[in-house]
Amino acid sequence: MLKNKRAVVTGSTSGIGLAMARELAANGADVVINGFGDPSVIEQERAGLEQEFAVRAHYVSADLSQAQATRDFIRQSADALGGIDILVNNAGIQHTDRIEDFPVERWDAVIALNLSAVFHGTAAALPYMQQNGWGRIINIASAHGQVASANKSAYVAAKHGVVGLTKVTALENAGSGITCNAICPGWVRTPLVEKQIQALAKKEGVDIEEAARMLLSEKQPSLQFVTPQQLGAAAVYLCSDGADQMSGANLTLDGGWTAR
Q1: Active-site pick, 59, 128, 155, 237
Q2: Is 237 a catalytic site residue?
Q3: Largest distance between two CA atoms of the chain
């Protein structure tokens, strides 16, 4: 379905981002992956995408917390692929603390990567899409882009900002063949969430699986984690002809979290 399309996925060396890259590649798209990790593992993932799906796959490193580095990353990715048709803004970090205790440097870091990088990446990618008259921008927001939780001021602020930026991007490009939508996951058992589970297990004196159940029961009525593969399938749908008139929307996969 996506043969000859060129996709860039940020934060895609593991977790949700890697699942996004795999699903796009499985549907024929050439991909650029990006993120941190062991270089040998990253190369294994990159080569695996090419071998398994018969597409071109590149790895482009960048510090997306920096504005110019983010814009340079988009240019380098476009050079590698010969253009950009699909951009998945996925990279993100988390820090939890009460507002009065929240370290200034952690606030700045969360906003820079989770929100500002989405703006800079989108701004740099749009001209390539406008040139072709077709594009898909998919922003990975969160249930926290729609509702709040205590001790997550920077993350909630950033994800609410991503949802707003998604709507503005959709409006500015309406009728151009370019759409912009947000995917809003609930709990996904990524390395980021695994750390929260471990912290909860230590705090409550329970094992990891009991802590996982406790985490889910607080927010997610389905009591099941959303899988990265389900999110990847949602991204593929947003790139399909069936989603041509879907723009500025929040596609929520949260097991009923925000339905309460």
Answers
A1: 155
A2: no
A3: 57
Mean pLDDT value of segment 97-106 = 98
Distance between first and last Cα of the chain? 36
E strands present in the chain:
6-9, 30-33, 57-59, 86-89, 135-140, 178-185, 250-253
Q: Going by C-beta distance under 8 Å and a sequence separation of 6 or more, which residues neighbour residue 203?
A: none
Give tens-digit pLDDT for 4-63. Answer: 999 999 999 999 999 999 999 999 999 999 999 999 999 999 999 999 999 999 999 999
pLDDT tens readout for residues 67-91: 999 999 999 999 999 999 999 999 9
Strand (E) or helix (H) holding 128:
helix 117-132
Element (H, E) at 21: helix 15-26
Task: Give me the torsion for CA of 55, 60, 65, 67, rounded to 10°.
Answer: -100
CA distances to 49, 140, 239 from 184, in Å: 25, 6, 16
Buried b (16+ CB within 10 A) or exposed e, 226-256: bebebbbbbbbbbbeeebeeebbbbbbbbbe
Q: Tokens 């499985």 belong to which residue?
A: 26
CA angle 11, 236, 177 (to 5 degrees): 100
At residue 58, what are phi and psi to the nearest 5 degrees?
-125, 155
**Domains of the chain and CATH, by start:** 6-186+226-254 (3.40.50.720), 189-223 (no CATH)
Return the closest-CA partner of residue 122 out of 83, 156, 165, 93: 165
